[in-house]
Design a protein that fits this description.
This protein has 15 helices and 17 strands. Helix content is 36%, strand content 21%. Helix 7 crosses helix 8. It is elongated, with a radius of gyration of 30 Å. The protein has 475 residues and is α+β, with helices and mostly antiparallel strands. The chain has 3 domains: 307 residues, no CATH class; 106 residues, no CATH class; 48 residues.
Length: 475
């Protein structure tokens, strides 16, 4: 049965942490795991929304009857995170980043932004709710299987990190609580499990194109919403690796098909992705009943003047393509330069006589080769070291064939003996090679080459050595 016959619908949610300060206070976005400075205990209770309805997910969590313990740190937490002080104004830098992301996704920002309280009583928020705001709607991205519409771009608070669960309580580390989080949700336009992976990769690339994103494990998360045959939607949470998305989605399709074969409907629920690519029940699917306005945060109006001030960055994919075309380097090398935020153009201006490709390879590939071949600590190399080598190349004091040798001297000795790398004239090279040939009549070409390289290492281009040996041995 193909995906069309299945009536397969897949949507994606992408969550990205921001760096800098937290969303509603000046605490730094630093996640800690050492011994806590303080600990507090709380119990959370369910309340109904303004419509009088109570959220099913909240009721489910309350039914567990557990209390919550929170561990915090004096340097990264304050009274706001333990719900003893109202929130301050929204972090302007985080708000501007959310608008940048929205514009990159071609989404339309709302005229006014109203933060909401989303009831969450699993303990991951000390207050019992998460502050979240809809920033923009109706965006889109291009993929190999057509456009995928972006239904919403939201800015919200990150939750606390669960560190222990018992029958009586759940313990959380609140250093993560309050970090700004951008949430991107797509429409169910994703056509296949593999397409879901591609879409997640595209969204990740767009997010990384904006400065201010946190990097590293756990800083970006993807959830999938999946249904078949017009049945109920299931949300899959906890993907650790984008490569696992297709396999987990395929397994979920099989699970839902087995349920439908029995004549039952698929339960609308949230499921946790396990290491073996299966999923387990987490909680009922939350609904709109858990949302109500946050009255402690004033309305934010989005004016034309404000949007004009938002600078939309160049996408990583566009930067990579531009570097490939301008400097004739490989896509992989270009991606590494962008990832490491290396300004190749600036280097080419400083060292105009050095090929851009040589600069790029020296900065990206050479340290890896040095570590693999010579087992040296390349972390000792810094910008000053590379600039010294590039300056020698630019002034003709070093041939590109001996870049590794020069960098090895810097790692091992902290300096370069420039006289060692002073390039000999063709006449001097020929004199050395003639001496080798005359001292060893009948010596094979490769043997002559080996002896010549030992005597001339660092002082002659290997290609030039080969050419001179050929000339002398062909007489």
């Amino acid at each position: 049965m193909n995906n069309s016959e299945l009536g397969l619908k897949i949507g994606l949610e992408c969550h990205q942490q921001l760096d800098g300060k937290k969303l509603f206070c000046n605490c730094p976005c630093t996640i800690k795991d050492e011994k806590a400075d303080f600990e507090i205990k709380r119990e959370l209770r369910v309340s109904s929304s303004e419509t009088g309805k109570t959220d099913s997910a909240a009721l489910y969590e309350k039914s567990k009857g557990k209390h919550f313990i929170y561990e915090g740190y004096n340097d990264v937490n304050c009274l706001i995170e333990i719900d003893e002080q109202p929130p301050e104004d929204v972090n302007k830098e985080a708000f501007d980043i959310a608008l940048q992301v929205a514009l990159l996704l071609k989404a339309k920002p709302l005229d006014a932004i109203q933060f909401m309280r989303k009831i969450v009583i699993d303990g991951s928020n000390v207050s019992g709710f998460q502050r979240t705001a809809l920033i923009a709607t109706n965006g889109e991205i291009e993929t190999t299987l057509g456009k995928v519409r972006i239904s919403s771009v939201c800015l919200e608070e990150e939750s606390a990190k669960k560190i222990e669960t018992t029958n009586e309580y759940v313990k959380y580390n609140i250093s993560r609580l309050g970090i700004p989080l951008i949430e991107i949700a797509t429409e169910p336009d994703i056509k296949t499990p593999e397409h879901a992976k591609e879409t997640a990769e595209k969204l990740g690339m767009i997010l990384r194109s904006v400065k201010g994103m946190r990097r590293g494990l756990g800083t970006i998360r993807q959830d999938i919403n999946l249904s078949i045959k017009n049945n109920n939607r299931v949300e899959l949470k906890g993907f650790q690796d984008l490569r696992s998305i297709p396999r987990v989605a395929e397994n979920e399709i099989k699970r839902q098909l087995e349920i439908l074969k029995t004549g039952k409907d698929v339960n609308s629920e949230v499921r946790k992705v396990e290491e073996d690519f299966s999923t387990t029940f987490l909680r009922p699917m939350p609904g709109a009943s858990r949302m109500y306005p946050e009255t402690d945060i004033k309305l934010i109006k989005i004016t034309k003047e404000l949007l004009k001030k938002i600078k939309v960055p160049e996408l990583i994919a566009e930067k990579v393509e531009g570097l490939e075309e301008k400097y004739s380097i490989s896509a992989e090398l270009a991606r590494e330069l962008v990832k490491e935020e290396i300004n190749l153009e600036e280097y080419t201006k400083l060292y105009p006589k050095v090929e851009a490709s040589v600069i790029a390879k020296t900065l990206i590939e050479t340290p890896k080769e040095m570590r693999a071949r010579f087992d040296v600590d390349v972390d000792k190399l810094n910008e000053k070291h590379f600039n010294q080598v590039f300056d020698m190349l630019n002034t003709g004091k070093l041939h590109k064939a001996f870049i590794i040798d020069a960098l090895l001297e810097l790692v091992r000795n902290g300096q370069i003996k420039q006289e060692r790398f002073k390039e000999l004239s063709d006449k001097d090279i020929e004199f050395v090679i003639k001496g080798i040939i005359e001292s060893n009549p009948g010596l094979a070409f490769n043997a002559i080459m080996g002896d010549a390289m030992k005597k001339l290492k660092g002082k002659a281009d290997p290609k030039k050595i080969v050419d001179i040996i050929k000339k002398l041995t062909s007489k």
